[in-house]
Amino acid sequence: MTAATMAVARESRADLRVRIGSLVLSNPIMPASGCFGPELASLMPCHELGAAVTKTVFAEMRGGNGAHRLSETPAGMVNSVGIPSLGPRGYLEHLHPAYRALGTPVIVSVGGHRTSDYAPVVAELADAGDAYEINVSCPNLDADGRDIGSDPAAITEVITQTRQETDRPLIVKLPPMVPSIADCAAAAEAAGADAVCVSNSLPALPLDERTRRPILGNVVGGLTGPLIKPIVQRLVWQAARAVDVPVVACGGVMTADDALDYISLGARAVQVGTATFSRPTAMVDIVRELRSRVTARGAARLEELARH
Predict the structure, then answer these.
(1) Angle 229-242/256-264 helices, nearest 10 degrees?
(2) DSSP helix/strand/coil, 163
């Protein structure tokens, strides 16, 4: 066996596993919902990811927002895609087979605009997902448009209802602009969630530098990328101190060091979004770098690296 072959064999034994409820992931790296599709399978070995997170599925078909939908900013990006959706039946027929073919666990993202929207979608999806990410960052049409995820009582209602429809792990994706991320995370855990994802994008309004007019068709969009990482780090730290279930960090992860920063603050898994737009292989690169570092350090677990 050559030295190179031996090194690959050692790295393959590096233990990066993460448990979310009953689901065991081979490593903690996964895409952020809306930033990844099965069409990327031709560009990278998606089976090396810990999981694939789908675009958000709503009860009804949605066409998304009008142009423009994306705008670059220094150290970030603002998107206003509007979450197009084929609905549960359309997802199962047209998208789910392609996600399944990736060779990694599939976490189906579910959205809604009322607390009563989520459970029926999960029921219709049945056991399609290995887990479900419950995106409560949507405006609640029954509560003056406030984010469902900013209200612990609304989170409790969503997760209590959804838990009755599935025994698969539930990950609650929280918005960043909330009175208390700790209270929201704790409400999700108490209602039966297996993990919380912190966080969704930050609301932003980019202007065209020439006209001084909003550049996005929807005027307001979601700010993502390295710019928001220090903000999300605080939220992850607060959430991890408030709950015993795993925290999945999401916000500005571009490198393995970014992932380790979040893990050092208590996150158990990490989602990658904006980095994939400029570097489609970013997630796989991060997985391989983490595995290489665990092997080089002779560490038993990834958390040991985060402490150095």
Answers:
(1) 40
(2) helix
According to the model, what pLDDT value does residue 12 have? Answer: 54
Instruction: Give Cβ neighbours of residue 139 (< 8 Å, ≥ 6 apart).
Output: 113, 145, 146, 147, 148
Residue-wise burial string across 204-220, b where 16 or more C-beta atoms lie within 10 A, e elsewhere: bebeeeeeeebbbebee
- The pTM for the full model equals 0.93
Backbone phi, psi, residue 52, to 5°: -110, 130
In DSSP notation, 221-249 reads EEEESGGGHHHHHHHHHHHHHH-SS-EEE
Given 138, 184, 197, 250, which residue is catalytic?
A: 138
Residue 64: what pLDDT? 77
* Residue ranges in the chain modelled with pLDDT below 70: 1-13, 141, 308
Predicted pLDDT at 33 = 96
N- to C-terminal Cα separation, the chain:
32
Token pair of 92, please? 């199962």
Query: What is the DSSP secondary structure assignment for residue 5, as one 8-state letter?
Result: H
Say if CB 112 and CB 121 are below 8 A apart: yes
No. of helices (H) and no. of strands (E), the chain: 11, 14
- Give the pLDDT of residue 74: 87
Active site residue 138: yes
Rounded Cα distance between 245 and 261, Å, is 19
pLDDT for residue 66: 81
Strand order in the sheet with 202-204: 70-73, 76-79, 221-224, 202-204
Tokens representing residue 158 in the block:
């969503």
